[in-house]
Amino acid sequence: MMSIIWPILVIVVTVFGVLGVAAVSTMLERRLLGVFQDRPGPNRVGPFGLFQVIADAMKMLFKQDWIPPFADKPVFLIAPIIGFLAVLLCFGVVPITPIWSVAGNLNVGLLFIFGMLGLGVYSVVLAGWSSNNKYALLGGMRAAAQMISYEVFMGLSVMGVVMAAGSFSIRDIVDAQTNCWFIIPQFLGAVIFFLAGVAETHRLPFDFPEGENEIGAGFHTEYSGMKFGMFYLAEYAGVALSSALVTTLYLGGWHGPLLPPFLWFAIKVFLLICFYILLRAALPRPRYDQLMSFGWKVLLPLSLLNILVTGAVVLLRAGV
Amino acid sequence: MLGIIRTIWMTFLHMFHRNETVQYPDVKPYLSPRYRGRIVLTRDPGGEERCVACNLCAAACPVDCISLQKGEREGRWYPEFFQINFSRCIFCGFCEEACPTYAIQLTPDFEMSEYVRQNLVYEKEDLLISGPGKVHDYSFYNVSGLKIPGKNKGEAENEAKPVDIHALMP
Ligand code: SF4
Ligand code: SF4
């Protein structure tokens, strides 16, 4: 009996935990942006404005859910769901603590994550396509180009970690960092992975799919109500996912002295989310072609170099 | 590259700066007396309406939001109606500058939101206040040469007696 209940419990708690983190990080983002800009941010609803999350959720739920008559209805409906599910599924293979993970031991965990991130592109592209709106379509096109190319560097930069740990399972990768976090030997890979993560979640400063001053709201121009809410939540869940991935792949996951494993994981993820927000507050959006050429001309050679050096070192260690 | 990291660091340092925000409905900001907010029509020290319905304010207004109609009683002009459409007013203060009688004045009050747009059209009764506003001892008819009941030509402040153009004396 226990063997059935425990996994279900883990799944349910993880899903709701992720949703909660995504919802709270919308609030965290607004507060932190305020702090970075010398203003308090939303502080009216409840103590310290904490209930703002609830107020926002209510607003999303009760807003009119308008489907434009010119939209391609089934695709329009399904696009946000794909994006949302893809991000949620990714969390399944992220081990949070040694005992708490849905499928952290999956031996192709990293590949699964990249597959799901690849599916996430569909959500944005389909949303842009089905909206039948030129700005949405432009946003979708940009998203496709940006996310697909950055997925390449993301995958390549992670190869260093995979080689060093000798496994695709995220659990094994975390275990391989008991003595030394991978951010030290794999610093270059960590930076590339983080940058690619920013582009992958299309967060500022790489938020081209929704660059407000150029193409309206980009791919979600036509979305409203809860469907927009899903994109919104998926974006923040994506930020949390990207932070969790950096934590597990480069920052030693739950490893750390004194504090219990979960707390270490949570602290690392929290700090990374804060750093994401800091990036948003600090940096302006570059031009679209700059983003692409930065990716292909800088990140690609660097990540290949990273693989080359890591591979050489691993071979030398093995004493071939 | 270094610039980017420096930007991030400087933005981070702003965490430790003081908030600039004034928590508005709880803490009211100080507005100087010459702040350009809600418009009032003032009265002269004798308690009469200052406005002489000259229409200069309406002509000066860049958005044409003042409308008034001249009336006359006992030799004095006054506005029969005087409307300001605050949904168009841009609070530029040109009307105050144009007014020859200090009648129209802007006050440091900006809390005039309404749910119905029509309510933003203020009538004379809404605009007229009982005091002289920012200018305490100015009365247009006391300094102008116009003849009104109780004050003949040449009896205003600093006004010379009228010249008798039929007389031969210098
Ligand atoms: S403040 Fe400017 S816009 Fe408003 S009534 Fe006076 S002249 Fe017109
Ligand atoms: S408010 Fe002043 S400018 Fe306007 S009509 Fe009256 S006297 Fe003339």
TrEMBL record, chain A:
Subunit architecture: NDH-1 is composed of 14 different subunits. Subunits NuoA, H, J, K, L, M, N constitute the membrane sector of the complex.
**EC annotation?**
7.1.1.-
Q: Which UniProt keywords apply?
A: Cell membrane, Membrane, NAD, Quinone, Translocase, Transmembrane, Transmembrane helix, Ubiquinone
This one is known as: NADH-quinone oxidoreductase subunit H
Chief localization? membrane
Q: Where does this protein reside within or beyond the cell?
A: Cell membrane; Membrane
What the entry lists under InterPro entries is as follows: NADH_UbQ_OxRdtase_su1/FPO (IPR001694), NADH_UbQ_OxRdtase_su1_CS (IPR018086)
Q: What are the recorded Gene Ontology BP terms?
A: aerobic respiration
The text of the family note is: Belongs to the complex I subunit 1 family.
Q: What does this protein do?
A: NDH-1 shuttles electrons from NADH, via FMN and iron-sulfur (Fe-S) centers, to quinones in the respiratory chain. The immediate electron acceptor for the enzyme in this species is believed to be ubiquinone. Couples the redox reaction to proton translocation (for every two electrons transferred, four hydrogen ions are translocated across the cytoplasmic membrane), and thus conserves the redox energy in a proton gradient. This subunit may bind ubiquinone.
Membrane topology designation: Multi-pass membrane protein
A GO molecular function annotation here is:
NADH dehydrogenase activity
- Pfam families noted in UniProt: NADHdh (PF00146)
State the reactions this protein catalyses: a quinone + NADH + 5 H(+)(in) = a quinol + NAD(+) + 4 H(+)(out)
Membrane-spanning ranges: 5-25, 74-96, 108-129, 150-170, 182-199, 230-250, 262-282, 294-316
| GO terms under cellular component | plasma membrane
TrEMBL record, chain B:
Q: According to its UniProt record, which reaction does this protein catalyse?
A: a quinone + NADH + 5 H(+)(in) = a quinol + NAD(+) + 4 H(+)(out)
Q: Which residues form the 4Fe-4S ferredoxin-type domain?
A: 39-71, 80-109
Obligatory cofactor(s): [4Fe-4S] cluster
Which key words tag this protein in UniProt?
4Fe-4S, Cell membrane, Iron, Iron-sulfur, Membrane, Metal-binding, NAD, Quinone, Repeat, Translocase, Ubiquinone
Its subcellular locations are: Cell inner membrane; Cell membrane
Q: Which InterPro entries match?
A: 4Fe4S_Fe-S-bd, 4Fe4S_Fe_S_CS, NADH_quinone_OxRdtase_chainI
State any single GO MF term: 4 iron, 4 sulfur cluster binding
Output one GO BP term.
aerobic respiration
Q: Which Gene3D superfamilies match?
A: 3.30.70.3270
The answer to whether the entry has keyword Membrane is: yes
Q: Which residues bind [4Fe-4S] cluster 2?
A: C61, C89, C92, C95
Bilayer topology annotation: Peripheral membrane protein
Domain of life according to the entry: Bacteria
Quote the cofactor binding remark. Binds 2 [4Fe-4S] clusters per subunit.
Where [4Fe-4S] cluster 1 binds, per the record, is at C51, C54, C57, C99
Q: One Pfam family, short name please?
A: Fer4_7
EC numbers listed for it are: 7.1.1.-
Cross-referenced PROSITE patterns: 4FE4S_FER_1 (PS00198), 4FE4S_FER_2 (PS51379)
Q: Which GO terms describe its cellular component?
A: plasma membrane
What this chain does, per the entry, is described as: NDH-1 shuttles electrons from NADH, via FMN and iron-sulfur (Fe-S) centers, to quinones in the respiratory chain. The immediate electron acceptor for the enzyme in this species is believed to be ubiquinone. Couples the redox reaction to proton translocation (for every two electrons transferred, four hydrogen ions are translocated across the cytoplasmic membrane), and thus conserves the redox energy in a proton gradient.
UniProt record similarity statement: Belongs to the complex I 23 kDa subunit family.
| Subunit structure, interactors included | NDH-1 is composed of 14 different subunits. Subunits NuoA, H, J, K, L, M, N constitute the membrane sector of the complex. NDH-1 is composed of 13 different subunits. Subunits NuoA, H, J, K, L, M, N constitute the membrane sector of the complex.
Q: Could you tell me what this protein is called?
A: NADH-quinone oxidoreductase subunit I
Encoding gene per record: nuoI
